[in-house]
Amino acid sequence: MRTPEDLNRTRPRSARRDDLLTVLFAAWLVIGVFVDGWAHNNDKPESFFTPWHGLFYSGFAACAAWMCWQVLRHQRTGARGLAAVPVGYGLGLVGVGIFAVGGVGDLVWHEIFGIEVDLEALLSPSHLTLFAGGLLVVTSPLRAAWAEPSSASPTFGQLFPALLSATLTAAQVAFFLMQYSPWLTSAHQHAPYMVIGEQVDPRFTDWLVEEVQLEGLAAILITTLVLMVPALLLLRRWHLPFGSLTLLFGSVATLSAAIESFDTGSTFLAGVVGGLAADVLVRCLRPSPQRPGAVRLFAFAAPVGLWLSFFALLGLEFGVGWSVELWAGATVMAGLAAVGASFITAPPPLPDPGLDSAGPRYGGGRARVPARP
Question: What's the confidence (pLDDT) of residue 182?
């Protein structure tokens, strides 16, 4: 029986140029998603047939046509079935089908239930179907590069299709979690209050302040994982060239802030500053699965640098409405959350199965008894 490894050896591998075209078409799709989000959040005309819908659906059409063309090109050489599908693109073609079903479903959903607004738009079943299909399409170049038995230390240009694929994936996830984005909330800028008549109800004030603070903390922790999980996965596979994490962090922050027309000011630049700091950490620490201690240190320090720069920019432009305990504690919690995630991408080594399980143990268990002479 043929194993998946045997099948991969017989399947074609996409050229870097092919992966680059795939990821550029995927960028067209993802940017269209963010433009549509901007339109929803800025009270633009709501219907299925809008310019912003046209932008991301045309991006999908470009992705689908290009991926299908690659299969047809290999079929012309005599390959059949999965043998004509480039390595890494099988799930992408599945994603094309899921996205197409989601697109038809989205049209039907809008005709029956109308246009969703606010949180409903993110949780609509048709939109979640589009999201799932889009993720499979966008991650195709990353899967192709991951399966390529090439150098573990590529240049930025060599790894760019995979890096942009990972960046677009993180951006899509950030889009569907936009309710918990520090670049889309002003929770960190001020302490809110509610005026009832001419009096301030202190009980309501205390409750509302705490709720907004919790929202801001959740935004920091969730965004940390959205950025750090792909960063840690990339580090598990490659020695990342300088600029990789600047691309990842900076792009996600910029696209997220653009949804609300950069209402949170220059704080999106924290993504660029934090990404540069993370690239410096990678250069200095050289984290890898063979160096788990360096991975843990990187996982803690990278989000700390990101959120320190975020709060610094926030303070310069708007002022930080949180106490030092809150913003400093949230920064440390972000680092700890990323350290926890690092145990998934770089787990501790398993015990050597060759060791004698009957050896001495602390706290009981069987002990080895030396043989008598």
Answer: 92
CA separation for the pair 188, 315 (Å, rounded): 10
CB 99 within 8 A of CB 116: no
Half-sphere exposure of 351 (CA within 13 A, CB side): 5
pLDDT of residue 355: 61
For residue 138, the model assigns a pLDDT of 97
Query: What separation in angstroms does the CA of 123 have from each of 27, 130, 176, 177, 212?
Result: 23, 11, 8, 10, 22
265 burial (CB, 10 Å; 0-12 / 13-18 / 19+) is middle
Q: Return the amino acid letter for 183.
A: W
Q: Which of 199, 191, 255, 197 is nearest to 226 (CA)?
A: 255
Distance CA 256, CA 238 (A): 27
CB neighbours of residue 126 within 10 Å: 19
E-strand ranges in the chain read 195-196, 199-200
Element (H, E) at 195: strand 195-196
Dist CA 324 CA 320 (whole Å): 9
Helical pair 292-317 and 202-237, crossing angle rounded to 10 deg: 140
Structural contact between residues 194 and 319, judged by C-beta atoms closer than 8 angstroms: no
CA 157, 158, 163 angle in degrees (round to 5)?
Answer: 80
Q: Give 10-residue mean pLDDT values along the chain (373 residues).
A: 56 92 96 87 64 85 95 88 92 96 84 69 84 96 92 92 97 93 74 41 61 87 97 96 98 94 90 98 95 96 97 90 91 98 90 63 48 46
Listing DSSP states for 274-293 in one string gives HHHHHHHHHHHH--BTTBHH
